[in-house]
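Lab manual, section 2.4: Encoding a predicted structure.

Procedure: take the sequence of the chain (109 residues), apply the prediction step described in section 2.3, and record the output as structure tokens. A sample record is shown.
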Amino acid sequence: MFDFSDIAYLEANGSYTKVVMVSKKEKSLMVTLNLKALSSYLDDSFLKIHRSYVINPDYVSRICGNRVEMCTGELLDVSLPYKNLLWDTLNVVTLGKRYKEKRASSKES
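Recorded output:
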């Protein structure tokens, strides 16, 4: 079949799932399992970022607002409920978070 570490992301397509790979041999596959069923086979390093996407954070190139750019070049939407988990996983620090932490530490002093 394929190595799960080669998966960049999964995209829901009804009762099918598109599996986008980073390897040069196979760029994408269509699997006859829905996203929820297929993602249950993956390890905990994969993250759900939207009802239609599960990504491998190792292949995120950059964050562009409410989207992530994958190393394959695609921009994928990030839903608000999943945004904080994604940012925490990728160790993204927002200005607001830094400000709150700085304020909290100065109040303790």
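Check your result against the sample. Helices lie at 35-39, 80-89, 95-108.
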